[in-house]
């Protein structure tokens, strides 16, 4: 399936009432449709409950299985954590980093 490849909140603009949301700056690729939803799930997530609520809402809307989306989130959580760690520190950053690193840790190692 064709993917946007870089679908995060910064790459979606409000095109107004007639156009709606517009995705910009694609990095087209083919792959699993759950991949494009990961940034929306992990964006500013401050706990596992927030991630689970987002998965429950987005998986059916994107037409993907929740478990598959959860697995992609776990696989990419370390990459998102490194990007977050490179940004200037904000009060919520430590909580988000802890959430991402816990998500990336296999259940048997938690």
Molecular structure report:
- By secondary structure, this protein is mainly alpha-helical.
- It has one domain (31-109).
- Helix content is 51%, strand content 9%.
- It is built from 5 helices and 4 strands; from the N terminus they run ββαββαααα.
- α4 (66-85) packs across α5.
- The radius of gyration is 15 Å and the shape is globular.
Secondary structure elements and pairings:
Layout: E1 2-3, E2 12-14, H1 16-19, E3 21-23, E4 29-30, H2 38-42, H3 48-62, H4 66-85, H5 93-104
Antiparallel strand pairs: 1-4, 2-3
Describe, in short, the structure shown:
This protein has five helices and four strands. The protein is mainly alpha-helical.
List keywords for this structure.
single chain; 110 residues; two-stranded antiparallel sheet; two-stranded antiparallel ribbon; 5 helices; globular
Number of strands: 4
Average pLDDT metric:
90
- Work out the radius of gyration: 15 Å
Shape summary? globular
Share of residues in helices: 40-55%
SSE-based structural type = mainly alpha
- What assembly state would you assign to the polypeptide chains in this entry? single chain
| Count of spatially separate domains | 1
The total of helices stands at 5
Instruction: Please give the alpha-carbon distance between the first and last residues.
Output: 34 Å
Low-confidence segments: none
Tell me the strand order in the biggest sheet. Answer: 1-4
Main sheet: strands, sense, barrel = 2 strands, antiparallel
Order of helices and strands: EEHEEHHHH
Share in β-strands: 5-15%
């Amino acid at each position: 399936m064709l993917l946007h490849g870089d679908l995060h909140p910064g790459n979606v603009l409000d095109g107004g009432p007639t156009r709606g949301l517009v995705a910009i700056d694609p990095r087209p690729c083919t792959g699993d449709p759950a991949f494009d939803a990961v940034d929306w799930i992990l964006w500013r997530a401050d706990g596992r409950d927030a991630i689970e609520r987002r998965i429950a809402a987005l998986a059916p809307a994107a037409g993907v299985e929740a478990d598959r989306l959860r697995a992609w989130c776990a696989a990419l959580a370390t990459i998102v954590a490194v990007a977050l760690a490179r940004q200037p520190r904000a009060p919520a950053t430590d909580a988000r980093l802890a959430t991402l690193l816990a998500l990336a840790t296999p259940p048997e190692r938690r």
